[in-house]
Design brief:
Radius of gyration: 18 Å
Shape: globular
Strand order of the largest sheet: 1-2-5-4-3-6
Helix content: 10-25%
Number of helices: 4
Order of helices and strands: EEEEEHHEEEEEEHEH
Length: 211
């Protein structure tokens, strides 16, 4: 479980892109204690994808991830994780301490991907527009609701159900924390789990009256 509050970024160090045995090594940037309590089998959100640590070195500040074929189908990994030196967003799993809970409940289970189609400056913020690959997920996106874009918890500013397009607005601080993505890039999208659960229950209930 995550919050969608990105802690730092990581650099793709080694990419073993055999589809049947896809492994990636990530070098953590600007966060010396990120792996201080890491254990084999821990979950780390990597640009919104909950992935399992299979090897790490806390002193050298790197960790290795194993990636399933299902994850490759759902996410941007095959499109965007192609070059050593590229950056991804990182967040450790939620702890049990007395920290304040920002963002929203995030599983790291990516639903679909979206293309960045616009980035318009407005004051100190930038308004981004995204187009979903799988339009059926539009029904779970609502104005002033939330979702994650590459692991970052963001508020939806508008949604066009017919086109599968939605927008978010990012302040300067958020943009500085996140890995940079130009227009035309693809990002991982996780919609609000609550909306999916409600939709499922309503569907099951209504089916009782249509049989």
């Amino acid at each position: 479980m995550f919050t969608g509050i990105v802690e730092t970024t990581g650099t793709l160090k080694n990419i073993h892109n055999d589809r049947n045995n896809f492994e990636v090594t990530v070098q953590v940037e600007n966060h010396e204690i990120f792996l201080s309590d890491c254990q084999i089998g821990d979950s780390i959100s990597c640009s919104g994808i909950c992935l399992t640590v299979i090897e790490f070195d806390a002193k050298e500040n790197w960790f290795k991830l194993g990636i399933s074929v299902e994850t490759l189908r759902r996410t941007t990994i095959e499109k965007m994780w192609t070059n050593a030196g590229d950056s991804i967003n990182l967040e450790r799993a939620m702890g049990s301490g007395n920290h304040r809970f920002g963002g929203h409940y995030v599983q790291g289970h990516v639903d679909t991907i979206a293309e960045i189609i616009a980035a318009d400056e407005e004051g100190d913020s930038v308004n981004f527009k995204y187009k979903l690959r799988d339009l059926e997920y539009t029904k779970y996106i609502v104005e002033k609701g939330y979702l994650t874009v590459d692991g970052a918890s963001l508020t939806v500013t508008f949604v066009d159900d017919n086109l599968g397009v939605f927008g978010v607005s990012m302040i300067k601080h958020t943009r500085e924390v996140l890995a940079k993505r130009p227009i035309g890039s693809f990002v991982n999208i996780e919609v609000d789990l609550t909306g999916k659960m409600i939709a499922k229950q309503v569907e099951l209930y209504m089916n009782k009256f249509t049989k």
